[in-house]
Structure formats: structure tokens, C-alpha cells
Amino acid sequence: MTEETTLKLHSQKSTALQLFWLSFVGLFLELVVIRWLGSEVRAFSIYKNFPLIACYVGLGFGFMRDSHESNRKFNLFTYFPFLLLLFVALVATCDWTGLTWVMAPGMRTQISFSWWDTTHPPANALSDVNSYMAISLVVFFFFITLIAVTFAAIGEKLGKLFNEFKPLEAYSIDLIGSTLGILTFAVLSFFCTPPSLWLFVAGIPAAWIIFKDQNSKRIPAIIALVLAVIVPLMVPSRGVVGADQFNAQARTLWSPYHRFEVSPIFLDKNKKELIGQNITVNKAFFQEPLNLSKDFIDKSSKKEFLENFAFNQYNLPYELIKPKRVLVLGSGTGNDVAAALRHGAEHVDAVEIDPLMAKLGHEVHPEKAYNDPRVTVIVNDGRAFLRQNPDLKYDLVLTGLLDSHTVAGNSLSVRLDDYVYTADGLRDALNHVAPGGLLSISYSAMEDYLSKRIASNLRIAAGDKTKPIIFKKRETSVWHLMAPVTPEQKQKIDALASKGFEDFTNMDTSGVRPSTDDWPFLYLNPTVFDPLYLGVNVLVLALAWLACGKRVRANANASRWQLFFLGSGFLLLELSIIDRLALVFGTTWLVNSICILSVLIAIILSNMAILKKPELFKPKILYAGLIATLALTYFTPIERFTSIGMIVGGSLAAIFSAIPIFFAGLIFSGSFHREKTPSVGLAFNMLGAVIGGLLEYVATYTGIRSLLLITIVIYGISFLCLLKSGESKIEN
Q1: Residues 6+ apart with CB under 8 A from 537
Q2: Nearest-angstrom CA–CA distance, 589 and 22
Q3: How many angstroms separate the CA atoms of 544 and 690, rounded?
Q4: What is the spatial distance between Cα 316 and Cα 308, in angstroms, rounded to a whole number?
Q5: Which of 108, 239, 294, 514 has the fewest CB atoms within 10 Å, i.e. is most exposed?
Q6: CA–CA distance, 417 with 354 (Å, rounded to integer)
Q7: Inter-residue contact 339 to 375 (CB < 8 Å)
Q8: Residues 687, 544 contacting (CB under 8 angstroms)
Q9: β-strand 501-503 against 375-379: which pairing, if any?
Q10: Whole-prediction pTM value?
Q11: Is the distance from CB of 596 to CB of 410 less than 8 angstroms?
């Protein structure tokens, strides 16, 4: 082997390693941006699709940019560490700058217009909603633009590395690096690590790539990366504004879902009467593990207040039933569990989705309910627990003031608790109620449509056999919904009128759409049309076109438009599959991570198949297989697989869901391997994913299954592009 050949091989190996690690950094940071921004800025805790879309816009712009020789004189990747540092500084200090309270761009979600003036906004927040909304939108778009530019820097470097290899060789390296990025972030989430460690993990390979890049300003760039790790550690937490009595002793913790702040609560100004802890998640009040034991209340200076509070929040169901076996869905730190034990329960199953919340229940709850031998703590999604244990029966099933405060993983619309409250979910809960038992729902509804939707869902779930009872105490927001209620229990509920409770059993729920497993969006306002959110979508598209439109027109042809629509269809397919699998396995972070990893593995396998035998796979046959499996998926309720058991049925559901993804991967790899400029082909694919990400919101109008129909249409358009490009002639 000659010296020249040796140097060439060494150079190729170095380039492959750079591509691998930059792919790792890109996908890892994408998860960091979505997770961290959603934890620190309230609006992004619900609208996670916008940071994701911004990442795709940036990557598409960066990939496209490398195809122009004139742009190579200006190395955008040089500025990547400084852009990342700016993003980190803004997010880490948002408590102090007020950016935490950016208003969400929508009118159909509860958080949009009601949260900012009911959960302690900054003292200097504008009182005029329109002005506050306008400023919020400016900040919102600044974050989106900053994310897009940061990822454009990554995309530019990735594009250059991609063009050093054959398309599928580069794509294989990229997929493996991306898979490691997801796996690493899942492991860090499992161990409840903070953002500074996430940035450190991303910064190590990023620093190595910068040293390899001859155009980078190496020393300043490394300093910027180091500062990006240090800044989150140096900025003190401000806590929840308006709750200063808690903040002095607050500690910040991270779970796989939330940013927690935990601080002690005292009943007196002298801080001598400790009653429990205050817990906020993602900068909003969440719950308070409290000492509501009889001994503590009897000795308290606020005995009457605590007795009324405990009765309305936790003790009321036990006026109607004396259960031996209790199930608490969304048990939090254990207030409902402690109430069950105080009223003589012999066994309590406490289901809590967040492992850190369950841990805090063991550690900080004053009554130590989770340490009681009568209690079994189960870390799982509530709906998944019901499906996975169909034979368990309980005298009392509680929902435990369940309210998630965030969406499920990378799902863009479904919140963690949505599937528990659907009519189908409440029917599952009723199926776990033993004869003579009771399902009791307690929910703090700040908006009328929320209480009406849950009431409508429970009526549908109960059917004609029983009429649910609905009531609440005057001047409170806590609603109580119960079924099936016996005549004796109904008399006891009527007697509560003397304590200030009102009967809403016959409340009118017309005009409020009930939520189902196909349309599980509990928190969506019944408003039919949301001009604000749709306007923001249009502006995001305009931003993408402004950045990339000229280059798209210059590089467009039928084969690249095919890649564009393949990107749109694939992202929609991935999101709809993850949402549907959540019904089988739950909405836990682990399930979400496994689903995404499974998608990547299916793509890797399809890519390997095309690499080995490209002539074996005919485009028309692959498209026919894809459309057929998508149609079959649409007409097959995936949750029915669990009827044959979770192990066998769950495995079949996962395999069944992976088949259309495998077909889609074969089609993409088969088309991409003929792309002359890989970076441009990927740019079109990424920009297509932007459209797919925006179209996912259609599900909030038409339901999750409808995404499969939209996916079929999009893949049909990509097939027409294939025919126009003449690639189908390969079959001959």
C-alpha cells in the first residue's frame, strides 16, 4: 500500500468519524432543545412542534447551503458554538428576564390565555393582553429563528461531510450516529440528569469536530462550549415568582419529564409549623405533599381550614364508600394514597408515571404513605396500567387530581394524561371497579369546557346503566365526578349541600367535543378555528421559504420533490405511529425512546437492504406495499392486539407498526442512493419534514387516525414525482 493510499484511507476514516459524531451531536442537541426549552419557557412545554420544526428548517438550510460554491467562503459552522452559547444563556436566565412567561401562540389550548395571569407572572408583566401577546410572539419567533440558525450551522458541516461519500454510505453513518444520540439521551433521562450534563456530553464530540475543522476559530469556540456547560450551573433559580416564601430553600431536580423545584411549606410566617413541601414543574405549580393526618390537623393553628381542605381534596370519596382495595391513577407524591390509608384501606396500588415524583413521595411526604407495606408503588402510565392488568378489580378507583403539565415525549399534541381521561380511558377505569365499588374523578378545572368534557366522557363511558354524579364546592375549582353511584351514595352526596357543595349532574355539555382515543385532546378549547396558531404556522413557513426558497428553486427537479414529500410523509407517519403505540404501551419517556429507536432501526435495516441488493426492490412494488400497509394500519385498531396478552400482543403491535416504516425506508434509500449531491437531497427531505410537522396539528381537528390518510396522500404525491422523474424505468 502506497503512502498516498494510506493517507487517503486515513482521511476517509477521519471524515467518517466526523460525520458519525456530528450526526450524534445534531440529534442529541435536537432532543436537548425540545426538552430543555419546554421545561424553562412555558409556551414551549405545550407547543414542542415549533422547536422541532425549527431544527428541520435549520438543517435543511444548512444542507442546501453547502451546494453553492460561493457560500463555502463563509463557514457558518464556525459560529455554531457561539450560537449554542447564546441559546443556553437565554434559556438559563429566562427566570430573571421574564422569558419564562412567553404566551403560547394559540386560542384552543388551556395554557394559551389563562395561565399567565393565574400562576404568578412577573410583577412587571403587561396588563394588556394584546400587548403582552405581541411581545410574546416576537420572543417566540426569536427563539425559533435562533434554533434554526444554530442547526443550520450543524447542517452546513453535515452537508460537506455527506458529499464526501456515496449517498447511502453517508446516510448509514448518519443513522448510526443519530441512533447513539437518542440512546445516550434516553440513558441520561433515566438517571434524571440536569441540562449542564447534557451539554457536556454534546460538547465533547463537538469540540473534537471543531479542532478538525480548519476554518473554525478553535480557541474561542472551545471557550464558548465550556461556557455553555458552565452557565446553567452558575445561574441561580428564581423559583415561582410570587411564591417567595418557598424559594429561599428551593432545590432544583430533573426527571425524565419535568424540571422540579421543591421547597418547604409553613403554615405560619415564623416558619415553625411545617406542613409539607411545595413542588413546581416547568415553572408552574404542580402539587404539595402535605401532612393531613388527624394528629397534625388537631394540633394545627389552622385546624378548620385544613379539615375543609382535606375533605374537599382527598377525603370526600370515603364519605360514600369504605374501600379495602384502592387504585390511584396519577398518585404523585402520595396525598391520595395517604388519605386511603387514613380511611382503612388494606391495599393501595399507586400508579405514577414520573419516577422522580414517586421517589419524592418516599422521601419528602410527611405521612410517608409510600413506605407503608400496604402500598405498592407502580411507575407506569395510568392508561397503560389499566390495559396491562385487565383482571384487577378495586373497590375504589381514583384519578388523583391528575394533570400532566406537558406533552408526551416528542408527540406534538398528546399530553401525558390525555388518554386517561378519554371516554375509552374512563370505560377502562370503570371495568376495574369491583361490584359495589366506585370510580371517583377529582379534577381542578380552571375552564368550563374542561369540566364539561370530562363529564361528557364519563357519561359516554358509563353508558345507559348508570348516571354519573357531578358536583363541586362553591367558590372552588375542584370538580368531583363519580360512577356508578348507588341510591344510598346519592343521598349522602345530596346531604353535602349543607357543606357548600352544588349538584351539577344535569350540566349541559353540548358544544363541547368529548375526547376519545382517536381524538384525545382534553385541553383543547372547543373553538373551531384558531387564527392565531394558524397564522404562526404561516409565518414559520414564510421564514422557511425566505431562508431556502431561492435555493429550492435553483435545485428543484422531480426526483428531489419526491424526496421532499417522502420527508413530509415520513414525519407524519412516525408521529402517528408513536401516538397510537402510546395506547398499547403508555406515554412514558421509555416507551417514547424505544419507539423512536425502533423507527431508526427499521430505517437502518431498510438502508442496509438497499445497499446490498438495490436492484431487488422495485419502486412500484414498494409504493404498493407502503400504501397497502398504511391502509391496513388505518382500519386496524392497534390496541386490540393486547387482547392476546401484553407480551405477544404488544410485540405484534410493534411489528405491525414497523412494517410501513420499513417500506418507507426502502423507498427513501432506493431514491436517495441515486442522488448526485447528497446534501441537496437531504435538504429537500428535511424541508419536507417541516410540512409534515405542521400538518400533524390537523389531528387536533380530525383525529390521530386521519394522519394516516394524509400520509397516504403525501406518499401518493411522492410516487407521482417518481414517475415524472423517470426513475420507474429502472424496473425495465
Answers
A1: 694, 697
A2: 24
A3: 9
A4: 10
A5: 294
A6: 12
A7: no
A8: yes
A9: unpaired
A10: 0.88
A11: yes
Cβ atoms of 351 and 432 within 8 Å: the answer is no
Domains (ranges, CATH) in the chain? 1-239 (no CATH), 299-405+423-503 (3.40.50.150), 536-732 (1.20.1250)
Strands 274-281 and 284-287: antiparallel
Closest by CA to 659, choosing from 705, 691, 690, 625, is 625
Instruction: Say if CB 699 and CB 707 are below 8 A apart.
Output: yes
Beta strand 394-398 pairing with 325-329: parallel
- What is the DSSP annotation of 452-501? HHHHHHHHHHHTTS---EEEEETT--EEEEEES--HHHHHHHHHGGGGTE
Rounded Cα–Cα distance for residues 508 and 181 (Å): 50
Q: Which amino acid is at 436?
A: G
Residue 27 clears pLDDT 80, i.e. is over it? yes
The pLDDT tens digits for 544-566 are 787 777 778 878 888 999 999 99
- Distance, CA of 657 to CA of 661 (rounded, Å): 7
**Strand ranges, E, within 153-300:** 251-254, 259-266, 274-281, 284-287
- Three-state SS for 274? strand
Give the model confidence (pLDDT) of 447-485 as tens digits.
Answer: 788 889 999 999 999 987 788 999 988 877 788 889 999
650: amino acid identity, one letter: G
